[in-house]
Write the structure tokens for this entry.
Amino acid sequence: MSEVIGARQPDAEETGRAAGGPRPAFTGSYQKLWLLLLFGWLVSYADRTVTGPVVAWMIHDKGGFIGSSAHPAALGGLIGSMFFTGYMLTQYAGGRLGDRYGHREMLVLSLLWAGVLTLVSGLATGLVVFVVARVLTGLGEGVFYSNDRVLVIEHTPPRRRTIGLGVAVSGLSIGLTIATIATPYMIDWGKSAGFGARAWSMPLYLFGAFSLLVGVATWLFFRARGDRPLRLGPPLLRLIGYSVPCAAAITALYLISDKAGWTAWETAIGSGVLAAVMIAFVVRDLTRTGRAKTLLTRDLWLLYIAFIAVMWNLWFFSYWSVEIVSEAAHSSLTSAALTAAFNAGAGIIGFPVGGWIADRRVRAGKGRKPLAITCAVVHTVLAVAFGISLQAGHPSLLLLGLILFTSGLFFNALQPIVHSILGDQVPDADRGAVFGVFNLIAEIGAVASPVVSGVLRDSTGSWAPGVYTAAGIMAVSVPLYALVRERIPGVART
């Protein structure tokens, strides 16, 4: 069922002009804001995606930290899961810090933090140091999501809100595509530059430096358009104070699992326990402060849980697609990367188009929920087709690329639609927190997906079971979306 929540409301800049009061924190054109955040998503996702192709290179060349492992896919997946454990644990804190200190400040800090730690990842000389660097990178990047979504919603007219969310987050697909395609070439460049066995570090250096440049550009952009200077010190100290114990807990989990000889499954369960503890802490905090009635409603829980499927599928295909295509089609790593990039590249179209169609429905007084359901169903069907192609043996690169691209269109269109539905469920003052809780819970999928899929591959000798698992989890999300009672902004029914 759907509920209309009123006629179009003026955006923050219009309200400030009409009241004659001080300028809002951001007074620039909202299209420029979209473009800036697009670049933020681009470097953020390039920094995290680069781990997958680097791990694939280590597996193929039997080098680096993973090449000599008896179960390289499981170990590689475990590294990805450690990153996303860190990324998940700062979701709620990032939203709360943004609500308190400013969403602009948190975005700048996230980009600068990720750039520095990606460079540190390239300097790592051992597996443990590399894992710690990746965990810390994830902790810093975790605060980007909730603050980006809030800025788009707050500074974009409701009639264009979903396309704004889609345009900004399309940087995700661009970053995924660039990292997937460019990483093998960057590694080859590292070989030519004399890096030898450490050629894998070259893409980390390059992406880290680019992230720092975007972080500085973001700081300059906001500083020129705000009514107050950006004060990064206080939120940085709070973020460090929050991240250090989280990083210590995740690193301790990794070291204990390594010393005790835990399987990747057992370590993944340990990550799940950390996630459960954090979710319990957040629920307790919201209940204690009286915010549970706003942030833990029935409809929000449905959205929180359903989006686990999106994160699972996103990081199954993003993390392992190069390795999957390479094994299935017996192709080179470079050819596999180009084919796998069709899935990531589809988001460049899918994200904004999904938002544009959703906004058209909102302007007509119709709900966005049917679009979300359709996208989830189509992706599920195409994921099953992808698994069948792998199971049949020796699929062509053309077939795999076509399925990945088509499924990617619907999969990526789904995300801004759900983000927009979520943002309209709560008052303006709670948007940072609601996106923080949303991604905290949804990231369970990102934490579990790489390692579970890697273990399935090592135990069965095929990637098909992992594909079917991803499709089945997405299928479960369909009835959850159907049960959501959507609130429609912007245009009243006539």
Q: What stands out?
A: Strands lie at 2-4, 486-488. Confidence is low (pLDDT under 50) at residues 1-25.
